[in-house]
Amino acid sequence: MNTMTETIKKPRRAMLEEFLSTHPKDPFARYGLAVECAGQGDATGAIENFDKLLADNPNYVAGYLQYGQFLARISRTADARRTLTNGIEVARRTGDQHAGSEMETALVQLPA
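-> structure tokens emitted (112 positions)
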């Protein structure tokens, strides 16, 4: 039998969780898992992973943008506003003008 046909492809989330179990500080994998959880509608998993990502990697600008947008989608407007505002400050500090601009746009689009 061909080993390729014997191998069952793991879902993306399972692969990310497995990778993080051996590389818990990998920011890109943590970010990927947070985004994957958000896309699957797992708010608890998304929040847990975004919080861990930003606690361990406070300069991970893309995390603030995706987290802020996610929080807005689940109607946590105050949390979204805080996350995006923090992200704008980090983007300015790190010189990421593009992400800063995206977060400014997302911030002004939040309901009052």
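Confidence is low (pLDDT under 50) at residues 1-6.
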